[in-house]
Amino acid sequence: MDPLEIHTARLHIRNLQPKDLNDFHSYRSNPEISKYQGFDVMDLSQAEKFIASQQNKMFGKPGQWIQYAIEEKTLGKLIGDCAIKLDESDKRIAEIGITISHHYQQQGFAKEAMLGLMDFLFAVKKIHRIKETVDVENSASIKLIESIGFRKEGHFIENIFFNEKWGSEFQYAMLKSEWRKK
Ligand SMILES: CC(C)(COP(=O)(O)OP(=O)(O)OC[C@H]1O[C@@H](n2cnc3c(N)ncnc32)[C@H](O)[C@@H]1OP(=O)(O)O)[C@@H](O)C(=O)NCCC(=O)NCCS
């Protein structure tokens, strides 16, 4: 198993490192960022522990979420993070998620990072299917994944108790065969 490294035109996707701490904490402490995510806001010490827990993880272990750094190359700075989990029972199926700091949103960074991830997963790692689950109220994320061409294949009604209330989610997916056609 190897550490993951992906380069796109503007971005370098790699393991989180201690040097990312302040940038990571600046958006992971923002309640607007965690509003639709399985993360609570983090204080500096929680952010530090989280980075330490991710920094040596190797791509390829089924059933394990790994959170990766998204670095903007000209700034040399962390602007967000993305996550991949290979399915516990079949590692040809992957699940992904992404977060871009509120300072850098709506500049095409999420889309560029997602396209880089998908190219890596489908073309290099021969993944068969990528899925993403999104809160039905998360309009930015829905716009992002639909603009990439993910197919909506599920609408789960009040399937998750989250932030003191029942929430509903859409599931989206894309197959390698669908990616090839794009
Ligand atoms: C969802 C998120 C990752 C989008 O990041 P981003 O870098 O701003 O997205 P991009 O600039 O790459 O935009 C991608 C597409 O989504 C659209 N979009 C992005 N944010 C939008 C918003 N707030 N409202 C409407 N459309 C939006 C863009 O217009 C673009 O569409 P296009 O390709 O048709 O032009 C970001 O809003 C975020 O981190 N949110 C908080 C974390 C989260 O909820 N993550 C998803 C759960 S896993």
From TrEMBL:
Keywords: Transferase. Residues 11-177 form the N-acetyltransferase domain. Gene3D superfamilies: 3.40.630.30. GO terms for molecular function: acyltransferase activity, transferring groups other than amino-acyl groups. PROSITE patterns: GNAT. InterPro entries: Acyl_CoA_acyltransferase, GNAT_dom, N-acetyltransferase. The keyword Magnesium does not apply. This is N-acetyltransferase. It comes from Flavobacterium macacae.
